[in-house]
Amino acid sequence: MPPQNPQNPINPGSDKESWQKHSSENQKQYKQFLQRADKNNVLKQLPRLHNEAFAKIDCLQCGNCCKNYSPRFKTTDIKRISKNLKMKEGDFIETYLLLDTDGDYVAKSAPCPFLGTDNYCSIYEHRPGDCARYPYTNEDVFLKRPQLTLKNSTVCPIANYVLEKLIASK
Ligand code: SF4
Ligand code: SF4
């Protein structure tokens, strides 16, 4: 989960069904856009659209990413988080993580064990790099990994917002 800003105005949960339905129905159009997009033009627009989306959509009213997917816990993440939790790295791994089929450590359970019922992340300042970067709307991964962006456009209203705005500005 990226920066948390309780002051943000839009509650994605209130309009969840409509944007997700719209996203599912438009996956083909999204895919074509991502395949054919002018890379430089998109990269130029991303910082503004990323900030705009985060100003409009409140992650604390959503939490979809943390509820449904695990970030990778890389070695540096594990060291930082376990130190912060005052746990031995081995104990941290044993308690919270497992190796996935790609050989990455991921959370044993979903929702993420660090997600509170209020959608706050209990290790927010030390969260994995993947969480800080999600949904990759301010980096070239957005175009470089179209399958990931397509998936994120059905999970994350921020990714969906950025994609829609890019398509509208073509
Ligand atoms: S899915 Fe997107 S909008 Fe929802 S909490 Fe995660 S980053 Fe925020
Ligand atoms: S570590 Fe925090 S930000 Fe990352 S998935 Fe878990 S609850 Fe979400």
Describe the overall structure:
With 170 residues, the chain is mainly alpha-helical. It has two domains: 16-66 and 134-168, no CATH class; 70-109. It has ten helices and two strands. It has a two-stranded antiparallel ribbon. A hairpin with a 5-residue loop joins strand 1 and strand 2 (105-107). Helix 3 crosses helix 10 and helix 9 (146-155) packs across helix 10. The protein is elongated. It starts with 15 loop residues before the first helix and ends with a helix. The mean pLDDT is 93. The structure holds iron/sulfur cluster (SF4) (2 copies). One iron/sulfur cluster (SF4) binds next to loops. The site of one iron/sulfur cluster (SF4) has 15 residues, from helix 4 and helix 10.
Quick tags:
mainly alpha; two-stranded antiparallel sheet; elongated; 10 helices; 4% strand; 54% helix; 170 residues; binds iron/sulfur cluster; 2 strands
Short description:
With 170 residues, the protein is mainly alpha-helical.
In what order do the strands lie side by side in the largest sheet?
A: 1-2
Termini distance? 29 Å
User: How many helices does DSSP assign?
Assistant: 10
Class by SSE composition: mainly alpha
Helical content stands at 40-55%
Strand content: under 5%
Task: Say which molecules are bound, naming each kind only once.
Answer: iron/sulfur cluster
Mean pLDDT: 93
Low-confidence stretches: none
Rg from Cα: 17 Å
Q: How many β-strands, per DSSP?
A: 2
Shape: elongated
Counting structural domains, the number is: 2
Following the backbone from N to C, one meets helices and strands in this order, namely: HHHHHHEEHHHH
Biggest beta sheet summary: 2 strands, antiparallel
